[in-house]
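Figure 2 data, in text form.
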Amino acid sequence: MTSQKIKTGNGFNEGAALVQTNNTGEFSSLSSDLTRTAVPAEEYRYSVAPSFTSVSVGAASGTIVTGVTGRQIEVLSYTLIADSATEARWKSGSNNLSGGMAFAANGGASANDNEPMLRTNVGENLVLVNSVGNLNGHLTYRIV
C-alpha cells in the first residue's frame, strides 16, 4: 500500500487530505473531519526562533527592540539590574505594558516563562522607561 499526501494552497488547515491506494489501484481517503483536526487551528501561533538582545538604558526612554510593520514583539524573558534606586516601566510605543517597577540601588529583576509575558501592539517598538541612573541586562524576544 502506498500513501500520498495532497495539500492545496500554501498553509495549514486548508482541507488537506490523505489518499491511499491499495495494490489493486483502488483509492481510499480519510474523512475531512479527521484530517482537519490533525492540523493547527486558525488562531494557532506558529513558533519562531527567539532572539536575544542586551539592555542598556539611562535615565530616559530607550527603544529595546524596533517594531516591525504588521508584527508584534513578544517578550519571553528579561533580566534588569539598576545602578541607582529607580522605577522602570515597559511600553509598547507610548502605551504601558507594565506598571512601574521599583528597584533599589544595585537591585534588579529576572523574569521568564514558557509563554510570552509582554506583547507590543502591532508595529510598535518595545520601549523601556527608566527614571534615574542606568538599567542594564538582557532580553529574549520573538517577532510574531
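Caption note: The radius of gyration is 23 Å.
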